[in-house]
Amino acid sequence: xxxxxxxxxxxxxxxxxxxxxxxxxxxxxxxxxxxxxxxxxxxxxxxxxxxxxxxxxxxxxxxxxxxxxxxxxxxxxxxxxxxxxxxxxxxxxxxxxxxxxxxxxxxxxxxxxxxxxxxxxxxxxxxxxxxxxxxxxxxxxxxxxxxxxxxxxxxxxxxxxxxxxxxxxxxxxxxxxxxxxxxxxxxxxxxxxxxxxxxxxxxxxxxxxxxxxxxxxxxxxxxxxxxxxxxxxxxxxxxxxxxxxxxxxxxxxxxxxxx
Amino acid sequence: xxxxxxxxxxxxxxxxxxxxxxxxxxxxxxxxxxxxxxxxxxxxxxxxxxxxxxxxxxxxxxxxxxxxxxxxxxxxxxxxxxxxxxxxxxxxxxxxxxxxxxxxxxxxxxxxxxxxxxxxxxxxxxxxxxxxxxxxxxxxxxxxxxxxxxxxxxxxxxxxxxxxxxxxxxxxxxxxxxxxxxxxxxxxxxxxxxxxxxxxxxxxxxxxxxxxxxxxxxxxxxxxxxxxxxxxxxxxxxxxxxxxxxxxxxxxxxxxxxxxxxxxxxxxxxxxxxxxxxxxxxxxxxxxxxxxxxxxxxxxxxxxxxxxxxxxxxxxxxxxxxxxxxxxxxxxxxxxxxxxxxxxxx
Lengths: 259, 346
Prior knowledge:
heterodimer, A: alpha/beta, 2 domains, 6-stranded mixed β-sheet, 4-stranded antiparallel β-sheet, 9 helices, 32% helix, B: mainly alpha, ABC transporter involved in vitamin B12 uptake, BtuC, 77% helix, globular
């Protein structure tokens, strides 16, 4: 997936609201790509634009050398699957039903599930490890299980690209690590390109192969090591509250309790 | 791993509902100012018994068309309500949120009240009822057309919902003004129209109504997969390949055809369209449209037939307004189901 001078933002009638500088970038295929940035830096906007939900203001998103905006939604749904932060409009469905929607692009108008689809659904549910909750309603799940069910839906969609918007945001440390390991396992096992945005920079450094940093003035990208070396994280937050330790690749807070 | 928890349970529920539907259909026809026994009704329908010409005439000329109207009205309104609840992801949405019934009321009011206020026309009873239907259809399709054109401009469904409500308030206000300046007689006529009425449909009118409801049902069935995808939210639906704008337009057209024609022919029948989809969700415990569409059609028809049966006030020659019966009979059911199941989920 290549971003060619991509300008993200929201189009109004006459003017347009540009969210961040134009982005030139290519996501590494079969790897874990992370998008980081401060609140309001355009992470979600970028996720929605490369996911084909928001139109690009300028430039374009290219997959297989084709501009996303020229590709039909039906075709995109076989290329890109999404996990978003917005709550589901209805949670009154079983995990099985939720995951089965991932197979919709491959079924007829009635959404008839044959055995092959049934198998993909079961495999996806087993892969994320919630097979004991297959017939539970989504509203009965914990946040962590819900997130896993949504990832299972994306896996069942069987697309080369899986894009997730802040998948770890409501999870505790244990479940964060578990989910990221799951994504890593998925990308290694089936050569899927995983792109996700996150506020957990330390985790992004530990788990991702490439990082895209959105900033008001400049877009930076590279491997975690190269970005640390370039001192990107030292400048990311204002120095008076948070500081970055290059040795441990972690942040420390400057609060009243710290010396 | 199995596909669903108990598919046989759902089939059993459907079998029971179909049975109840058949009973309600025949029962509805046996009730009226002249009571006819269930078995006689059944035999007359099948052409097995022609004991009396009068009975046969009553059933074929009056009660059968009225029962079929009831089926169309109940099924169509419930399906419209289901479509609106899914489109707006709002459990309080019903077939009339797009302002369709307000449009019909406005049309009817302009005709009944406006003409009397101006003192221009005085039509005969028959001409009046037919023209009221025409005026109501014009009104509802006018609002439908405006809402559809507006829906191309607004990006999110919430705005569409509010625009529909605004149309409702607007036409309500105009109706009030017309009512204020109109005569007592025409006001009474208008109020009778607004009570709802399943009778009085000629065969060609019934054909038109049936055609519209069938078309709406067909459209909804074709959309069943995308309706399910909408339950995840607009953005997820798009990522699953749903052509959102097209889908939205088709849902609005299907609802408009059904709710519009029903209101035009049978008056603004309230409550049913909002409540029946919820009752189906609670009974079948699912949100899958493959179950909910046939369930709403069936249960909606049953609901209407039973309400109409009650409205006949068995054993008397009086007829209650159908609009009052649907809520008196239906609201307790919804409350009871809710208290039993403890929660409602769209």
